[in-house]
Amino acid sequence: MNMRVINGTAAGRKLRAPKSAKVRPTLDKVKHAIFNSLGEDGGRGRVLELFAGTGALGIEALSRGAAWCDFVDALPASCRAARENLRTAGLYDRARVRQARVPGVLARLKEPYDLVLADPPYHTVEHEDWLPALSESQAVTTGTLVVVGHWKKKLPAAAWGRLRLLRRRKHGDSMFSIYVAEDT
Fold first, then answer.
1. What is the rounded distance in angstroms from the CA atom of residue 90 to the CA atom of residue 102?
2. In a structure prediction context, what are the per-residue pLDDT tens digits for the chain, which is 184 residues long?
3. Is 102 left (phi over 0), alpha (psi -120 to 50) or beta?
């Protein structure tokens, strides 16, 4: 599968994916739609990419101007791919890759993020397994945007704790929902 950085300082750089059936990289057309929906918010402040896989979403945010991105994935092969892709894109100095499971890592995050990107494996990870923990974690604060990739037949709820749905977009079998964190 060919993947690349779409826009920003690393535009055009090719990204690699590990050869694993457990990794389902976000398609470029879906990534493009996500960042078009986010507009200027797609390249702001601190970013967290959960279920990072190749790191393509967080790398796109960094390329568009985000100051920092933490990448989290449980698979060693995904973490290696994300690190390699960060080096290829010339963005390694503004990122950290953590091998950890979601939601377990959420309790250890102590600083808030401006943008959270998550495209979990559709058929093995349930929204209920991690979205409530994210909503209650210190990773989100008032105004944090949360983008959740999901299968079109499995919509996440319109609210998860203090996360409220702003909009949904469909692209083939893939969809994403954008939430905003409200005051507690």
1. 27
2. 678 999 999 999 999 988 766 677 777 888 889 999 998 888 889 999 999 999 999 999 999 999 999 999 999 999 999 999 999 999 999 999 999 999 999 999 999 999 999 999 877 788 898 999 999 999 999 999 999 998 888 888 999 999 999 999 988 878 999 999 998 6
3. beta
Structure tokens belonging to residue 79: 């973490």
Distance, CA of 50 to chain centre: 5
Distance between start and end Cα atoms, the chain: 42
Angle of helix 56-63 relative to helix 76-89, nearest 10 degrees?
Answer: 20
Give the number of domains in the chain: 1
Question: CA-to-CA distance for 95 and 133, rounded, in angstroms?
Answer: 23
Distance CA 91, CA 184 (A): 34
With tokens 């918010």, the residue in question is 41
Q: Name the residue range of residue 109's domain.
A: 3-181
CATH of residue 38's domain is: 3.40.50.150
Where helices occur in the chain by DSSP H, the ranges are 28-38, 56-63, 76-89, 131-136
Q: What are phi and psi of 154, to 5 degrees?
A: -140, 75
User: Would the pTM count as exceeding 0.85?
Assistant: yes
